Amino acid sequence: MSYFLRKIGFYAVALWAALTLNFAIPRLLPGNPVDILLAKLQQRGGTVSPEARKAYALLLGGDDSEPLWNQYVRYLNNLMHGDLGVSVSYYPAPVTEVIGQSIPWTIVLVGLSTIIAAILGVGLGAFVGWKPGTWLDSLIPATTLLAAVPYFWLALLLTYLLARVLGWFPFQGGYDVVLTPGWNLEFIGSAIQYGFLPALTIVLASIGGWLLGMRNMMVSTLSEDYILTAEAKGLTPRKILRSYASRNAVLPSVAGFAISLGFVVSGSVITEQVFSYPGIGSRLLGAVQNNDYALMQGVFLFITLAVLGANLVVDLLYGLIDPRTRARN
Amino acid sequence: MTNLNSKAVASAADSAEMLAETAEQDGGPVRSGWRMLLPTMTPWLAVGLILIGSITLFGLLGPFLVGDPTTIRDQGLTGPSSEFWLGTTQTGQDVLAQLAYATRGSLQIGVIVGLLATALSSFFGIYGAYRGRAIDEAFSLLTNVFLVIPGLPLVIVISGFVPQESRGLWTIAVVLAVTSWAAAARVLRAQTLSVRSRDYVAASQVSGERSWRVIVVEILPNLLPVIASQFVFAVIAAILSEAGLSFIGLGASNSSTLGTMLFYAQNGFALPLGAWWWFIPPGLIIALFGMGLSLVNFSIDEIINPKLKNLRLHRKRARRALRLERELARGTRAENPAAGPTAEESAR
After folding, report:
1. Selection from B50, B34, B30, B31 nearest residue B42 by Cα
2. How far apart (Å, rounded) are the C-alpha atoms in residues A86 and A96?
3. B88 strand-pairing partners
4. How deeply is A34 buried, as exposed, middle or buried, from its count of CB atoms within 10 A (0-12, 13-18, 19+)?
5. Cβ contact, residue pair B271, A25, below 8 Å
6. Which of A299, B10, B73, B132 allows an S-S link to A284, with CB 3.0 to 4.6 Å?
7. Where are the domains of chain A?
8. Which residues cross the membrane (chain B) (predicted)?
């Protein structure tokens, strides 16, 4: 039981660190959001009065007249009530509403493609590591090319080949704009058609890591004594592969989920930009370009929450499937 | 990284035992120890070194050989020709010239971030694990927190808050290093914990050596392959992250990198206009350079995890046996044509 408590405790600390980081970044860095916004306003010919300055400061939640500690307490308090401020670029929509609209797109896209990539990669990795010396195994180093390809460049390449030259898929967007979003067959079909290229990009770019990790673990596992014992018992190779080798070799891949998820989320943020996909990554970049600081911080918080949550679930599951982790702590 | 292979050629294809034997013959234990740290030359390692070498050379010498990358001409968006090997951009700038300067920029940031991140991960990983107790607990908590916070969104938010004038090369490098050291630190911590409990480290501590000396002289040499591999990964990760950051217009304002090129290509509608010569080369260079570094890492992995090396040697022997069997089969086929195919099938 203490294993689970420790894990939950750790993620609580990580969550607090992320929240505090989010609070500290705008206050520690040289640029002042209020000044940047006002400078933009002046460039467009607006006049800036002290009242306008004060209003902007209040709108952005950074009233510098208060002591830092009070600001921090109020920031946490607002978060508890789900108040992330008001988006400037989607004014007057609150940040939570803007994020709420875009987050299902990202969760479905990134979630599905990560699961597909993990299953395919681990499966292929187990197979390749199991049969060393085949032509497939000698191709393994070539998968490093896939792992080193920038996500967004792969996205550009795929769009060029499949959308522009061959014309199989639409260029960009999340669905056909003439349709209204809803749970009908036509809309879902359109969403799948539009989402195929981004998903393919994420799967192709992340599959190499899974494959390589699984293959290397498989190789290490195959020289364990229990594999030899299983062979000596006369078990069929298929049974050894499934019940003895793969099950043990897959553990680091599960434990490494944290790192890979971080990479996939990072990669998909920029991939979404290439496809103008209506997900949370495009919102983040849009917020950066429009100096929409509240939205920027809100999106960062949501992404962090999602990654932390996914990792917590994986860690708890890991404690279940590998009893050693529980025993050691 | 090229110095890694200086002596490796001599030991190519030798088994670990043979290597140890030859090392014993020609020198003391220190030398054979260093020898074991060098990777064995394999075809894939050669491919990796050639990729890294040629791209580095292109980045170092290329800018002296090409013209000014910013010159604007009236030949916009022309494909590859004898005058412009990689065509021109929308405003008639030479893509090859831009590529040379951008490669230099990307390599520069990759190496800077790689060094910074390796230093950070070595400090938090090795020092924390060596000191143990509260410091170790604190450091590994910090490491794990940095590990689960997604890096690029954090970098994007930070870059979004830094005004463009003060967003220089070093700012970006520091931000990238701070967000990317954690995974390596965790691996180093685990390795240090296992090295720290060995007898010779205890002996060194008991004999009154200062802790920095124990770390540098007794522990660090054992971790060198791991650190080398982490450095290689850090360089790849840094080049990729910087490219992503520049691609969305948040890169260093005073430098031109491969990501910046892709940013201009995307904003100059290279994709809808079909100007493949503008956006394919920058990404290809990143991918090939990353591939080269990963291939070098494969060889370093074999030092860290000797099981992988034994596997390769085993496979090599299996291949040789297969070839012999085939030759034999061919021999018998010459005498008895019916026996040929069956022998070959059984060999497979």
Report:
1. B50
2. 8
3. B94
4. buried
5. no
6. A299
7. 1-81, 95-326
8. 44-66, 109-129, 141-162, 168-188, 231-255, 275-300
Minimum CA–CA partner of A24 in chain B: B158
Closest partner CB to B240 (pick from A150, A156, A273)? A150
With a CB cutoff of 8 Å and minimum separation 6, the contacts of A167 are none
Determine the Cα–Cα distance for residues A324 and A272; give it in Å rounded to an integer. 40
Residue with token string 């850090």:
B234
What letter represents residue A242's amino acid? Answer: R
Yes or no, beta carbons of A149 and B286 under 8 Å apart: yes
**Residue A306 near residue A281, CB atoms below 8 Å:** no
Residues 6+ apart with CB under 8 A from A48: A38, A41, A42
Residue type, A234: G
Q: Is A320 exposed, middle or buried (0-12, 13-18, 19+ CB in 10 A)?
A: exposed
Taking the C-alpha atoms of residue B42 and residue B170, their distance in angstroms, rounded to an integer, is 37
Q: Any bridge partners for residue A94, and if so which?
A: A86
Interatomic CA distance for residues B110 and A232, integer angstroms: 50
> Which parts of chain B sit beneath pLDDT 70?
1-40, 77, 307-308, 311, 332-348
pLDDT of residue B35: 60
Looking at residue B36, its pLDDT comes to: 60
Q: Measured between CB atoms, does B246 come within 8 Å of chain A?
A: no
Contacts of A264 in chain B (CB under 8 A): none
Task: Collect all residues of chain A within an 8 Å Cβ-Cβ radius of residue B290.
Answer: 144-145, 147-149
B144 chain-A contacts, CB cut-off 8 A: 10, 14
> For the whole prediction, is pTM greater than 0.90?
no
User: What are B290-325's pLDDT values in tens digits?
Assistant: 888 888 887 887 777 776 677 677 777 777 888 888
Render pLDDT for A212-240 as a digit per residue (tens, 0 to 9). 888 888 888 888 888 889 889 988 888 88
The CA angle B179-B183-B188, to the nearest 5 degrees, is: 125
Architecture of domain A95-326: Orthogonal Bundle (1.10)
User: How far is A244 from A237, CA to CA, in rounded Å?
Assistant: 10
B175, B153 contact by CB (below 8 A)? no
Of B183, B262, B287, the CB nearest to A145: B287
What six digits make up the tokens of B236? 């790849």
Nearest to B295 by CA among A310, A88, A143: A143
Cβ B285 vs Cβ B55: under 8 Å: yes
